[in-house]
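#onboarding

Welcome to the new folks! Below is a worked example of what a typical request in this channel looks like: someone posts a single protein sequence, and someone else replies with the predicted structure as tokens. Don't worry about understanding the tokens yet, we'll cover that in week two.

Example request:
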Amino acid sequence: AKGGIVVASDAEGMAALTMSALAERTGAVKPVVYEHFENSEAVAVALMDDYVQRLTSFVVAKVKVAQTIYEYIDILVDALFDFQSKEHFHLRCVTNGLTSNFVNINRVHGEYHKMSVNVFKSLLRQQGIERDASHVAAFAIHEMLSGTVYEFSSKALERAARRTLKSAIKGIVLGLMTQGGAKPVTPMNLLGPRTR
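Example response:
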């Protein structure tokens, strides 16, 4: 969805993201659509960019009040679920990062994945967690968050999913911290729009 226009439902994914469907659902004629987008993959990339920037703005506004890494985790998990519950677009419905037909989607998905892991890695390093451990833990946290929020947002088990995620991520952090933690600061340099 972009600008309130739902291009494809969660179930349809990329299969429904055609230039004809975009023209039909926006009320534009196809030549106008082609003036803005080369093909449906370019539309999907634009949707991903828009989605990630809105998600980032929403989450960062919430987590910046956290005084400890544990508060940060609580706020982060709730913010991700809150954002997703009002969205009708999931990146996982567009790509899993392995779609052989869509090279640009895979590239952009990979860039956002790396940016997210780097944010978590930076947060863990702030807490005194050793470099290699923070890299592995950051990857694990990203995978847990993205998969669980996607699977359980707006569903019967959402409350349990929020609680479980918070406990699991706090357990990872607690198990790796060797000293008292620092106030977590989201690394804004890693959260800007990707270079195109």
